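Ticket reopened. Same input as before:
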Amino acid sequence: MSFEVSSALDYSATVIEHFERPRNPGHFDPAPGVIAATAGRRDQGVQFHLSAQVAGPVIRAARFEVYGCPHCIAAGSWLSQRLVGATLDELRSWNWREAADALQMPAEKRGRLLILEDAVRALAEAWARLA
Amino acid sequence: MNTAIYLDYAATTPVDPRVAERMIECLLPTGEHGNPSSAGHAFGRRARALVEKARAQVAASIGARPENIVWTSGATESDNLAILGVARFHADRGRHIVSSRTEHKAVLDALKQLEREGFEVTYLKPDSQGIVHPQQVSEALRSDTQLVSLMHVNNETGVINDIAAVGQLCRERGVLFHVDAAQSVGKLPVDVQAQCVDLLSVTAHKAYGPKGIGALYVRRQPPVGLRPILHGGGQESGLRSGTLATHQIVGMGAAFELAAAEREADCARLRVLRDRLWQGLAAVGNVELNGHPEQRVSNVLNASFHGVEGESLQFALRELAVSAGSACSSASEEASYVLRALGRSDQLAQSSLRFSLGRFTTDAEIDMAIEAVGREVRRLRQLGNAT
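Engineering reply: fixed in the latest deploy. New output:
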């Protein structure tokens, strides 16, 4: 038996920093060289929307929008920086554990990063179609 | 970050300094620290006199006589004593109980225990505004119903049930009636005689008294029939054994006397503040009030914010001490069962906040709360714009 009420509100400093000052919020409107993908559902509590400008073999800039808990918002913000300079192959092989480690996500929240991974994979597919 | 603004008075209230002063007197070597059951010396007799004065104060605040008041550790124990005590005492008379889906867990979990013991419970569903109607109770009563347990004021929405009408029909049908009135004292008139209540649970810490002390009103004429759940020294006519906590009891008595004396003025002031808060929150758009707009105590406001995830909303507003319907923020495993019983989706129940105002809430705090909620709801909605 645990005497802690809940650990879910114990956010890491990195999560708080991204939650308070999210990097690259918003989206790119459809245009040549712009790719976008959505994963998750609002009625299930988490939805990620990613968009990016592609320049040749790499992503030049990324934007994110998130409906979700602070961990999800932080993950979207963190990823929007991580994606800059990424190649298509890197997108295809991206794994949720990288975000979990960077943000010190508690175990009960890691399932939500699988949805983020789905969004990244879908973004890779959009890129592949663009190519 | 320090939590600056306390708007969680429905969870618990600070002790009124006037009450704390009375309590401290009972703790010190120079004060009335004796055991109220030690009738053999003056320390004990003086403590007993204070306990009996507090009993009269609590009784007077709910229209009861002092001999009807049994001290407990709080509303949870009062609810358990009432429900388990009556059901087990009268088990041979019938094994059916009527209650509602939106009761406090102290009632629902006591009823679950009775179900394990072979009792059958009908849980009435409130309407979409949170009200359980007397007609529903009437229709649920059976020949083997021995008890109806219904809350006076819901702790999440502040919605008020028509206790007097339910009490009247229970009296006519010969069924015992228990009321969880933890949220009522100081907010609404409570009169156990006029409202035909047989058992009524109250607690001090929702009315500017200390935590850890409560009471159960038990009708004596004719006797209700109650089996104790605690056994020991035989205090409180054998209904609740355990050394009486003089300082806690004195605090509850003083708090309830103040609550009765200041109720109308407190409520009038809080209603104005609460309504101003609602106007400010509603201005952000796509906000829904949970619970009946009028049939509600004056200090509670429960609202759901469309397009905002509950845990993020609560964390973004951590400068405000409010309660959230979000599962992650509370010890429960699911979004508010009360709001779901009112027909709210999981998503809206998750994105709900309960603001509860109190005696020490200021105009400036309400202004700050409105500003913070508006700012953060807009920010979070913008972050999730395209999703």
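Confidence is low (pLDDT under 50) at residues 1-8 of chain A. The first helix of chain A runs from residue 13 to 20. Please confirm and we'll close it.
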